[in-house]
Design brief:
This protein is mostly beta strands. It has a 7-stranded mixed β-sheet with strand order 4-1-7-8-15-9-12, with helices on one face. Strands 22-21-20-16-23 form a 5-stranded antiparallel β-sheet, with no helix packed on it. The chain has a 4-stranded antiparallel β-sheet with strand order 3-2-5-6, with no helix packed on it. A hairpin with an 8-residue loop joins strand 18 and strand 19. It is built from 2 helices and 23 strands. It is globular.
Length: about 300
């Protein structure tokens, strides 16, 4: 967790770099991107084109939506892909801690968006997985959440979720802007999630009962999918891992129509179930065969066998 403490200063400084935001600039039509991967040098690609190695900062990019890939030089560590929005005159900061498995990797993305009200200050928090607890100014909120009338200046916040690493960060809240904060939480290191073979299907996986703090209400009309009847193979299968999310007494993982936590739900996959992998990954999500169709599951809770 040491890197989280160190990165607080980096994030605050990066958001307010001279020539990158808030002050009059010589290149107001351009955008900035900063990518930091503590202790792990990585190559950064933007829309498939190599940009540079980390740590990097580019201040002369065209505004728009881009697909970013972070490829660690150490091939034992998994790459990370996501879409970001670069806005005119502003800097987007990605701080990423790669690991050997997607569910152990973690990081934070900070993007800025101008508000019509130049006196307003807002912060939006999105976490992967969602329903994490955000503590800021001694107040607790569940993600995703948008906070309005946030006091300007440096604000420190904490992100917690059972069985995940706690993250501590700082942001420089500016009047006239909404700060978008996206946090990918990393699973705590345990014997089960550091050894890929330890996450095999277990008979008691779907009979676990949640504690009061873990039980989350889902839409009452969302169906619970039956376990896949596909036989296990050493390749091309996705195994659903523990999630801490329960529906109708079963621990499950949401299956979505798109590789995004905001995608429409197609149903729920019980932990321990296996589904055919359809050979496509995007934004850390796996595409699977699901209920006679297709769906996407978050790679933080799924293992490719």
């Amino acid at each position: 967790m040491r890197w989280f403490r160190h990165i607080l200063v980096i994030l605050v400084a990066a958001i307010t770099l001279s020539g990158c935001s808030f002050n009059p600039m010589d290149y107001k039509a351009k955008s900035g991107l900063q990518v930091i991967t503590p202790d792990q040098s990585s190559s950064v690609f933007i829309d498939g084109q190599y940009l540079n190695k980390t740590p990097l900062i580019e201040k002369n990019l065209k505004p728009g939506v881009y697909h970013i890939q972070i490829q660690p030089e150490n091939t034992e560590y998994v790459p990370y892909e996501t879409d970001i929005t670069l806005r005119k005159g502003l800097l987007t900061v990605i701080t990423w801690k790669p690991d050997k498995r997607p569910e152990l990797s973690s990081g934070v993305i900070i993007e800025l968006e101008a508000l019509k009200d130049k006196n307003a200050s807002e912060v939006s928090f999105t976490t992967i997985p969602d329903t994490a607890i955000i503590t800021i100014n001694n107040k607790k909120e569940f993600s995703p959440v948008v906070l309005t009338n946030v006091q300007s200046g440096v604000q420190e916040f904490e992100v917690t979720l059972p069985s995940y690493e706690t993250q501590h960060h700082g942001i420089d809240v500016k009047p006239g802007y909404r700060t978008h904060v996206t946090i990918k939480l990393g699973k705590l290191q345990t014997a089960s999630n550091t050894d890929p073979e330890a996450n095999a299907d277990s008979g008691d996986a779907v009979t676990a009962t949640p504690s009061a703090g873990e039980k989350i209400q889902a839409q009452p009309d969302a169906p619970v999918a039956a376990s896949s009847t596909l036989s296990a193979t050493t390749n091309g299968m996705i195994t659903i891992l523990k999630t801490g999310f329960f529906q109708e007494g079963k621990e499950v993982l949401r299956v979505r129509e798109a590789p995004d936590s905001k995608g429409a739900e197609k149903g729920f996959a019980p932990i321990g179930a296996q589904y055919q992998y359809l050979g496509e990954q995007k934004n850390g999500w796996y595409k699977i065969s699901f209920n006679s169709g297709e769906g996407w599951v978050n790679g933080a809770y799924a293992k490719l066998n």
